[in-house]
Amino acid sequence: MTSEFELIRRFFSRPSAKAVLGVGHDCALLQPPAGMQYAISTDMLVAGRHFVADSDPEKLGCKSLAVNLSDLAAAGADPAYALLAIALPAVDETWLEGFSRGFFSMAERFGVDLVGGDTTRGPLTISVTVIGHVPAGLALRRDGAQPGNDVWLSGQTGEAALALAHRAGRAQLPPEHLALCQARLDTPEPRVQLGRRLRGLASSAIDVSDGLAADLGHIAEASTLSLHIDVGALPRSAAVLACTDEGLALECLAAGGDDYELAFTAPAQRRRDIEALSRELGLALTRIGSAAAGPGEVILRDARGAPVVLPRAGFDHFA
Amino acid sequence: MTSEFELIRRFFSRPSAKAVLGVGHDCALLQPPAGMQYAISTDMLVAGRHFVADSDPEKLGCKSLAVNLSDLAAAGADPAYALLAIALPAVDETWLEGFSRGFFSMAERFGVDLVGGDTTRGPLTISVTVIGHVPAGLALRRDGAQPGNDVWLSGQTGEAALALAHRAGRAQLPPEHLALCQARLDTPEPRVQLGRRLRGLASSAIDVSDGLAADLGHIAEASTLSLHIDVGALPRSAAVLACTDEGLALECLAAGGDDYELAFTAPAQRRRDIEALSRELGLALTRIGSAAAGPGEVILRDARGAPVVLPRAGFDHFA
């Protein structure tokens, strides 16, 4: 019988170039670079809740790190380390081989060393903690938005939610759109490069994981102002454009989860810098609204200025 | 319906005195003190595996942090921060209130700030990441034991395993022993003070969570030497002394899990320092064997020098 320690050794032990002491000890030891702060975040993915139990393990390995890297991106941090705690119903070497391949492919792309973890038997659950470096005082936060700032969004929202709507029978996507939407759901791309380049440029930032309106709500609340969003300005992918149910399209755009784009605010005089950054990164950055004095709320308006009410505000695991 | 964000706010948001930015953001921001390294570790507890689903939530809150603090103790680190990811089958405010009370009571005792986390719906699973400070180069490790070193053990092992044996019908404990053993299982005491005082004194250390022999095996392997353990020298609590099944007593002492004592090695010339430390901390520190050149193994011998073979080597979640 394969033991826990053999599992760790076989699938999850790779030497760390950066850590003083890496995986396979009681603790990893990290030496912070001079002038840097650590940004740290944790996310838990549960089978049947965040993914279907028979998900492709390699894609799941990618995604379980990607959703955490998205939090580092939102802080403008450079990814450095990860810890992985995983509960598995049984030892399944094929699954573990695929999962670790996906996890490490994402780790290598973003310079992340796996420095610790835990494996146990239990309902399939994946808990990842990530640590990044950010120059002291330069981290992006939720509480820095100012009245008059523009509100920006990277990429496009809604495709992951559209894939879920298709699965639930609420939408009928043609195969080419379904493939794109499913890929957005299964293999999200954390906006790490964008996040680090927004240091000193954005006044606040957040990653869009629970739905655009809900996540912007955290900025509005933390910064104590109102964010006015022009729903007509929200960028639409081909799949969302082809959606004939406008209510569903709006729900996916503004309240669908699992997008892992960055929403951020910036002074209006930085528009050219942000447009230049968009070209340099080859990543759409779209101005979708503006911040104004207000009580900490998000106000969505259509092209005629009429308020838009969403059927649901955003993803909440207990709602 | 209580939302995820309200849950976090109500039960898990306390201001952090140490962190630049604490709970309730994409990332926490930590400013490392000068000259310090970070020790970091993660542990996952699963209902039905590490605890029974109807465990007292306050004790479970204590234990879920304590088992992680034990890893910091083994590294000689000063606890500083924790992140908590938790999956719950449903919102249960009474349970959450109790759990958070237990978690924070342990956090306050050991100076730990909760700086991040995640809550989601799912089979009851608790994943904690802890971070501590340790002066650069002084962390306790597994790979520093030297031939000729003494092997030491704090406190006593076996009581938690004896409580489990009682529950499984393998032992019949009188009520007063059962209460003590159950308390050791439910509310372990991480040896944080001992760990930090062993910096510069112990040559290697590990926390005894998977069973003494198995955990000493990690030191033997990492240090590439043999550890000779005198089974007769293992300290026995009243409950273990009263156990009439000597095979079971030995199994609990040397292979039972969930002890959270520290096992460590130190040069023989430091015996007086360690004995003085024991008196100062009011914590038994017992010399249980010695290290010698060898292939990386643990050899248990009884009082007559005969090899002792354990029925099982230690706790392994997949064995």
Report on this structure.
- Two copies of one chain form a homodimer.
- With 319 residues, chain A is α+β, with helices and mostly antiparallel strands.
- Chain A has two domains: 4-135, 60s Ribosomal Protein L30, Chain: A (2-Layer Sandwich); 150-301, PurM-like C-terminal domain (Phosphoribosyl-aminoimidazole Synthetase, Chain A, domain 2).
- Chain A is 34% helix and 25% strand.
- In chain A, strands 7-9-6-10-8-11 form a six-stranded mixed sheet, with helices on both faces. The first copy, chain A, has a four-stranded mixed sheet with strand order 2-5-3-4.
- In chain A, α4 packs across α5 (175-186) and α4 (159-167) packs across α9 (246-255).
- The first copy, chain A, starts with a helix and ends in an 18-residue tail after the last strand.
- Chains A and B meet through α1, β1, β2, α2 and β3 of A and α1, β1, β2, α2 and β3 of B.
